[in-house]
Amino acid sequence: MTPPTPRLEIRNLRRSYGGRAVVDDVSLKILPGQVTCLLGPSGCGKSTTLRMIAGVEKLDGGSIVVDGMVIADADTQIPPERREIGLMFQDFALFPHLSVADNVGFGLKAGSKAERRMRIEELLARVDMLSFVDGYPHQLSGGEQQRVALARALAPRPKIMLMDEPFSGLDNRLRDGIRDETLSILKEQDTAVLLVTHEPDEAMRMADEIALMRNGKIVQQGAPYNVYTRPVDRAAVSFFSDANVLRAEVSGALARTPFGRFLAPGVPDGTLVDIVFRPQHVRIDFDRGGQGPAPTPSDGTAARAVVSRARFMGNESLVEFHLDHDGSALKATVPNVFLPQPGTVLWLTIRRDRCFVFGV
């Protein structure tokens, strides 16, 4: 069976400034109706990648392909207005002299005046802005302007939508609803979406696929579950959540820690490795006097720890410890309210099936 043609494909994309590679050999494929999140810290090259795809930034190498046709490479540069690509950047830049309706309808060329008006009102209703249809941008809050800009980008039904942190101006009460409605509209239209964000929660919520970017390169790519549960390195674990790290020396293919030995196959004796695990995978050993769940056999050896601080975070409590063994700092999250006093001694175990072993 022939694999489907990607709606958007970027191949070995490169861009440098002053001899420094900002985007370094980046490749991606996005199918119609697929949402891919380009996730990474500020300055890693995400927005530059988007601008090259949009055509507002020239590439130094590689190619950009839409529905099998090259739109940009060393010899080709189709102008932005002919790429059928929708743009939703952080600087939403509504036209101040146009009404909300005229802003949304700016890119609509086909259809009668009545049909265009129907499309405008449909989109404004879906982003909860229909009541402002005849207003002007200066009458709107920043979040309201952002929703109008979103409707404007969606109006022409673009084949591809590029979104650079488009929901950052929305308050938490509105953000989830607007994000979900936006995805619904885009998937209905079979639009390929490339969303740039530095927020892991947003990527996990929205993406069919995550491309984790660092220092101009994609370091890991896959479904959100796989990227989260099979991180490529210690930095990938830490980007998605807090991480505990225990350093250990390997002997006989085993790394010894206060929580027992961890397999390190193929690692030479004397090599240092990091055992990395998330706070939610630290368990309080009920059988040894803790106030938490009993350990399972997979949790291995219990280690004695002293509470240094505990805070209630809303849905869970965050407890910070120091291990008796070597003073290593450790964090654990506990459901609901659990606030032991500093100095309290507890025994801890960790979910060994949720630990990662990485070379230092």
Question: How do the helices and strands line up, and which of them pair or pack?
Answer:
Layout: E1 8-17, E2 20-30, E3 35-39, H1 46-54, E4 61-66, E5 69-72, E6 85-88, H2 100-104, H3 113-126, H4 142-154, E7 160-164, H5 172-188, E8 192-197, H6 200-206, E9 209-214, E10 217-222, H7 224-229, H8 234-240, E11 244-251, E12 254-257, E13 260-263, E14 272-277, E15 282-284, E16 303-312, E17 316-323, E18 329-335, E19 345-350, E20 356-359
Parallel strand pairs: 3-8, 3-9, 6-7, 7-8
Antiparallel strand pairs: 1-2, 1-4, 4-5, 9-10, 11-12, 11-14, 12-13, 14-20, 15-19, 16-17, 16-19, 17-18
What features would you describe in this structure?
The radius of gyration is 25 Å and the shape is globular. It has helices spanning 46-54, 100-104, 113-126, 142-154, 172-188, 200-206, 224-229, 234-240, and strands at 8-17, 20-30, 35-39, 61-66, 69-72, 85-88, 160-164, 192-197, 209-214, 217-222, 244-251, 254-257, 260-263, 272-277, 282-284, 303-312, 316-323, 329-335, 345-350, 356-359. The protein has two domains: 8-238, P-loop containing nucleotide triphosphate hydrolases (Rossmann fold, 3-Layer(aba) Sandwich); 241-359, Beta Barrel (OB fold (Dihydrolipoamide Acetyltransferase, E2P)), CATH 2.40.50.140. It is α+β, with helices and mostly antiparallel strands. Mean pLDDT is 89; it is low at 291-298.
Short descriptors:
20 strands, single chain, 8 helices, OB fold (Dihydrolipoamide Acetyltransferase, E2P), five-stranded antiparallel β-sheet, alpha+beta, six-stranded mixed β-sheet, Rossmann fold, 360 residues
